[in-house]
Predict the structure of Endo alpha-1,4 polygalactosaminidase.
Amino acid sequence: MKTSQVTAAIIVSMVFFSFPFKKQVQASKPFQNVKDYSLYYGAPTEQAIMHLKSKDLIIIEPQLFSKVQIQDIQSKGTIVIGYISVMETPSWNSLRVKELLSSDYLLKHGERVHFKQWDSYLMDLRQLHYRQLLLSEIKTSISDKGLDGMFLDTVGDIDDWIQDAATQTQTREAYRSFLHDVSNQYPELSMIQNRGFDTLDYALPYMDGLLWEDWRANWKEDTWMRTRVDRLRKEQKKGLTVFSIQLTKESSPGREARKLKFLHIDAPNGYSEINN
């Protein structure tokens, strides 16, 4: 090979390997050694921190925890994942609310969509300004505090609350663009998505895990659930970790989840209280 050809080959290799990209879930498997986890949005009390340190992986509201508290939890080998709401902005999130523009809200019949139960509003992920706010929140609440990854909540709103087909497709494409930006800026952070099964195709190249919130035991009799279980089982073989959770003490959902090799927990006390 001529010297010029060798030089060109080296340059191409350097460009390829220096270009930031998200490793495929098949290769990463950051949760392969996780045997149990906890989802906790409450305050970082001494009792809570002791409980969280006993788990392999935890999902927390990072704005409530200090960097020192997070480091303390990680010192026991616990993987710490930070919550971020993608498609909704809750009123309590003052850091984000004060930066929002009127164009960041997704309107229905000219009005903002308010979820009274959570006191949150549906957002327009197609807006670059809104996506930049999310990236800023990831920096200050998750990356700067040294967390290991992020839990992307409310993604399912794209499937459940956007009825217009064109808007839905545009929002899914905006979500994929957002994940691409996240993976470029924070390649060290793992990602877990909550539900959003019909949007999963847009997210899979970036996802390390998926949480099935409101998992139920009767999945074999439910066509909707059975179809999605079949899909997730295929992705499990490629490296995707599937988590599941239910808000009762019933034993049957957990048994069914474990048969499918889902990492399952019960949360009868909700997410703001300690669950065993």
Q: What stands out?
A: DSSP finds eleven helices and 13 strands in the chain. The longest strand covers residues 79-85. Residues 1-27 have pLDDT under 50 and may be disordered. The first helix runs from residue 3 to 18.
